[in-house]
Amino acid sequence: MADPKGYLCLVLHAHLPFVRHPEYEDSLEEYWFYEAITETYIPLIAMMERLVDEGVHFRLTMSITPPLAAMLKDGLLQQRYLRHIEKLLELAEKEIHRTRMEPHFHACARMYRDKFTEALRVFRDHYQCDLIRAFRNFQDYGVLEVITCSATHGFLPLYQDFPNAVRAQVAVGASSYLEHFGRKARGTWNAECGYFHGLDNYLSEQDIRYFFVDTHGVMLADRRPVYGIFAPISCESGVAAFGRDAESSKSVWSAEEGYPGDFDYREFYRDIGFDLDHEYIAPYIHESGLRISTGMKYFRITGRRCDLSQKQPYDPDLARERVHDHAGNFLFNRERQIEYLASGMDREPIIVSPYDAELFGHWWYEGPAFLESLFRKLHYDSKTVGTITPSEYLERYPINQLATPSFSSWGYKGYSEVWLQENNDWIYRHLHKATERMISLANRNRHEGNEIRTRMLNQAARELLLSQSSDWAFIMKTRTMVEYAEQRTRDHLLNFRDLWRMLEDGTSNLDYLQDLENRHNIFPNLDFRIYADPA
After folding, report:
1. Range of the domain at 132
2. Which of 192, 348, 366, 471 is catalytic?
């Protein structure tokens, strides 16, 4: 088969904050993790299994952030997820019986029973509860490129005055990737696509070859990009920056203008966890009795301004037809885009389309089916567009225009406003002070030989990293789980302060230290000296 005229680079950013609460039997926030496994990660794994088995050529790029990787490898969370999916399967069986006289709902109940059965097969039977192994296998096979991220998804532009802190976030993210995937990361997803001048130097120190920025990060670079966003630019460090293509992204990303808002697709916000009698649903919601989503939703979007109570039943067959229509439309638009671009370039253009992975399956239920249909259409029907990973593109074109991206982020207005505004700006004076103290601790104790003090220093570094997660500022801005985000920020900072005071005073509290090490057990091989000045 002849080479295509251009390439599509699909990038899925898979991330969750570190939500692990062994102190609770039924942690509400851990449900974020369970939902993402059932609705996004396992459907993506199952999709790749089918495509590989059938010989469909495809390439997918996917970040798996260090907090997510840590949770996927955690034995406690693995067992809790297993319990969770078994309960959902039990609920689906009950729903099949309850809806036996309601044909529309009965078909959905059977669909969910099949979905949960598949999740159990993939999670427990095929991968023995270790989904990292699944992603690593696909990467080793050559169809998936997994990239890393900063250690705890820290928004690095807001730490640029603390080079040691930026270096620590990047280096811990790189070492976590090496531990989980058995190779060095070739690319990274800077949290929230945040970039500031010089960030690429820290990436270069870890042999990272490329990263992503939003469209304006490339278009407003210090030199006018000859190919716009349709080829990478090369920073002075040699690290390449790929820019997001807004046109292809918007058609999928936007619930208002994009495919996910189609009226025949499943409605996200109406769930049997809220609809059914409390006594019936109680064993399948939070132990406190708080109603939460079960993932079983029987209604379609129906209309743009349709009240939840007026939603019409979901028809899986009709939704499947719309998936194929939309995949075909997406491919048609990319073919026209590539044909136009290729006529004015001396190389094949690359269209970079990045999305939050959780859009596919969790927010947009039909999303994984859309990707699968798209990959099949690309393989069987298109001679114009091929799929490629950033590493493969850089191997084809190792020399690119020298330019430095502009300071930028993705998100509202594109210049960090989501993570620094009136609802969250109070956290940074505390985060910066703790960062100063951690750097000082690392410099003054770099030769520490006492085991307990070393453990305290390592745990102080963990608490600081966890406090720096961009998720907490994001949640404060969006006003969703604000109390939890504020509490997590305060808890990690207070834990850091307690450890700092003990280290400064020459005291220790072994019970307190062991409790923190048990609850916040991310990065078991972390060395606090990563915060010290370079030797």
Report:
1. 6-413
2. 192
